[in-house]
Amino acid sequence: MDLVFRDAEVVDGSGAPSYRADVVVKDGRVACIVKEAAAAGCQRPGAGRVIDAEGLVLAPGFIDMHAHSDLALLRDPDHSAKVAQGVTLEIIGQDGLSYAPVDERTLGEVRRAITGWNGYGEDIDFSWRSVGEYLDRLDHGFDGEGIAVNAAYLVPQGTVRMLAVGWEDREATPQELDRMRELVATGMREGAVGMSSGLTYTPGMYAKDAELTELCRVVAGYGGYYCPHHRSYGAGALQAYEEMVALTREAGCALHLAHATMNFGVNKGRAPELLTLLDEALDAGADITLDTYPYTPGCTTLVALLPSWASEGGPEAILARLEDADTAVRIRHHLEVVGADGCHGVPVEWDTIEISGVSDPALASYVGKTVRQSADARGEEPWVTARRLLVEDRLGSTILQHVGHEENVRAIMRHRVHTGGSDGILRGDKPHPRAYGTFPHYLSRYVRELGVLSLEECVAHLTSRPATRLRLPDRGLVREGYRADLVLFDPATVAAGSTYEAPRTLPTGIPYVLVDGRFVIEDGRRTDVLAGRAIRRAG
């Protein structure tokens, strides 16, 4: 036997009460579980190594259902931002924009479009073009050794539309729709677990429901799921949720609602309305799950706030419009008076928009301040400041958007189909603390301190529920024969170290994390193990 966790408090991911046991790991799997081993006075399992787990909880590794590590996994072999949290699997390709499938034209376009999320990628060898080639690149990782944690991929609908249609705000022709169907089908055949959309991001937002329904039919045919960042999380949020439920019911496709929040002042206290909508759909037979992060602010790029018409044509067209004085006046009117669709139909409040990162280091003085604070310091209107930053940073600035409500966060995380997703953007000088802290924050703040969830419930939300959505037959539970993706943590001390002031501080109280039976965190420190691989669609 390779390893024994002795006298661990096992929270197995099922939601059932915890139990005390010795857990044996061999050849990358849970080989044996001996319950109440000490009390029974039985022969204790032996191994090459025994870890005294007295007072510690052994759980399945956490699954981050909404991650933006598409390039970070290939840039940073350490990847402690996620490893140290106990994350053993990330779902990438989110929000309809990622790096496969692409051709020579669209690779450059998508790199520009999501520089704020992942950087431009000057340090990355973009040797792939297809989904399958990207997954192979993840398998290879660093010098053939792999990557820090496992990763599954969603075909990004915005990138697919970029390939077939371009950046125009128009309906796809029948021939273009056929090409999109085939691109999605090819990505699914090559191992993607579903399809994502970013319906407040261009060019994916230009797709009408009929187009999305046809693509979801393809996803459903391969047993995948649709993961939309839907059309509004502000004004019209409930209608946007209803749209996604109806669309996927029509397509016969499973639905996973990304970062399922109810934000902005118009939605304060309205989470119960969303949950009623979901319960009615679930009771009628819909296949729905959702993810959230346990914080109130959101995080995106500054350019994402612009109205969709201002973003048509891609990054260079956006910059040209911003540099044209008359067009800039129109953009400002839509942002500040009308409520741009990029800002979820709500007039922007500049004192809620905090700059969290810039691509150009010369603009670092903006970071950590709201747009209004920077504007006041310059003696100018906030729009003038925002426009200057967009142009000078070539659309590469990221923001924290302080528009959430704690009561909504708590209500949604209690729901029966809830899972955890960090939505963590790892770039920028002052990223959202959720990137480094989501999973321990659930365990400390919402389990230990507030009791919003029991420990067993919370672990189930973060492990077996995601594994079920992903159709993984041997992950998400501490069970004999299952993969030894495991986390051992102290329930009395586990906590997120990351804060808004120090967002890259690592968690405490998580001394051991295993990926495929190998220590990636050992005695609280990152090892050099690269045990992660691409997790391809089952079946």
UniProtKB/TrEMBL annotation:
InterPro entries attached to this UniProt entry: Amidohydro_3, Metal-dep_hydrolase_composite, Metal_Hydrolase, Metallo-dep_Hydrolases_sf
Query: Would you name any one GO CC term?
Result: cytosol
* CDD domains registered for this protein in UniProt: D-aminoacylase (cd01297)
Q: What GO molecular function annotation could you give as one example from this UniProt entry?
A: hydrolase activity, acting on carbon-nitrogen (but not peptide) bonds, in cyclic amides
Q: Which SUPFAM superfamilies match?
A: Composite domain of metallo-dependent hydrolases (SSF51338), Metallo-dependent hydrolases (SSF51556)
Stretches assigned to the Amidohydrolase domain: 49-521
Q: Which Gene3D superfamilies match?
A: Metal-dependent hydrolases
What protein name is recorded for this chain? N-acyl-D-amino-acid deacylase
- Give the source lineage, highest ranks first: Bacteria, Bacillati, Actinomycetota, Actinomycetes, Kitasatosporales
